[in-house]
Amino acid sequence: MFKKSFTLFLVLFISFSSLAQEKIDYQVMQRIKREGLENSKVMEYLSFLTDIYSPRLAGSNQYREAGKWVVNKLTELGLQNSKMEPFGTLGRGWELKKFYFAMTEPQYMPIIGYPKAWTSGFNGMIEGSPVLMDIKKEEDLQQFKGKLKNAIVFMQGEQEVTTSFETEAKRYTEEDLKNLQMLPEPGGRSPFANRMEEFIARNRLRQSISAFLEQEGAAVTVEPAQGRFGTIFVSSGGSYRKGSPNPIPQVVMAVEHYNRIVRILKQNIPVKLEMEYQANFVDSDSLGYNIIAEIPGTDKKLKDEIVMLGGHFDTWHAGTGATDNSSGCAVALEAVRILKAIGVQPRRTIRIAMWDAEEVGLIGSREYVKNHFFDRDKKEKKPDYDKFSAYFNYDNGTGKIRGIYTQGNEAVASIFEEWLKPFHNLGATTVTVRNTGGTDHQSFDGVGLPGFQFIQDEINYDARTHHSNMDVYDLAMRGDLMQSAVIMAAFVYNAAMRDEKLPRKYFDPNEERPRRPRF
Question: Would the pTM of this model clear 0.90, i.e. be above it?
Answer without folding.
Answer: yes
